[in-house]
Amino acid sequence: MSSSRAIYMLPALILSVLAIVLAIVGLSRDPAPQAPETVLQVGDPASRAAGEEAPQEYRYWALSQSVEAGAELTEEQLLVMRSPQVIPGAMSADDEVVGLAVRRNVRAGEMLSVRHLEAGGPLANALLPGFRAIALPVDDVSAVGGLLEPGDMVDVLATFRAAEDQRGDPTAMLLMRDVELLAIGGLMEGADADPANRDRRGRGNTAVLAVPEKTVPRLLLAAANGSLRLSAVSARDMADMDGMTDMDERIERVAVEPGEGLVRYRELFPAPAPPPRAAPRPRGQQVEIIEGSETRSVNVRP
Questions:
Q1: Could you report the per-residue pLDDT of 164-208, keeping only the tens digit for each?
Q2: d(CA 143, CA 156)
């Protein structure tokens, strides 16, 4: 009886052993390798194809400790700061600044800028040697319709009456030629020309000119006693001035001789010539007539 049971159980045991063997064989095999992940490097073409922009970084100099004006910069005082955007006026970490003297006090942690290394502000550094900056009141008419921009060059003209008689003959003259316009409406070249910013600064009616030092009194006198107007200079004339390296020659070109281009009102409307005088009528012979105690003269026609 027991032997018959064993015979019936034998197939089940064989199947169980076979299942265990197959399981062991399956577990002993290496798993199938997974597909490697794609890693996109910065600047990789595949990254640009996926619509991702490579991040850009800007490096600037900053101060690790305070530096007083006049002191020279050392490597120990400098550290590099990184920014994801451009910072106007900041000194790039690629610029060599070690050994340069600062013109202003710099606090610890402050970013080093151009103004720390330059003597004076942007206006002072825009002036050539021997020139001075002076502001004049202007409007849309006197400033060439309001179309002037910083960096343009202008001629300065004045109209006024003779000083000895304010009711005298009006005159006009050229005060200066090829004068550089440093700022207009309170904005220098390269500054934000947003009209809202200009209105907030409240200096939209001024023009700052770079004039030779010796012409400043003449310009002030003309502005106080006459009316000034600016005339735009052509780009070709501006190019000629840019190539002029002799400062004395440039000053003489700007500072014209007094009275140059002087025009009087009467020269525009010359007085008409006087009418020709009529020829005198011929006179006849004069005869003296005596009548008693009276004497009279009578002209007798021939």
A1: 555 567 888 889 888 999 988 888 876 555 555 544 444 558 899
A2: 10
Can you list the domains of the chain with their CATH numbers? 49-119 (3.90.1210.10), 123-268 (no CATH)
Query: Which residues have C-beta within 8 Å of that of residue 227, sequence separation ≥ 6?
Result: 142, 158, 159, 160
Q: Which two tokens stand for residue 33?
A: 């390798």
CA distance 37 to 227: 78
Beta-carbon neighbour count of residue 38 at 10 Å? 8
d(CA 193, CA 112): 26
Task: Please compute Rg for the chain using Cα positions.
Answer: 47
Which tops the pLDDT comparison, 233 or 268?
233
CA distance 17 to 92: 77
CB contact set of 66 (below 8 Å; sequence gap of 6+) = 105, 106, 107, 108
pLDDT in tens, 20-59: 666 665 555 554 444 333 333 333 444 445 555 556 889 9
pTM for this entry: 0.51
Residues in the chain: 302
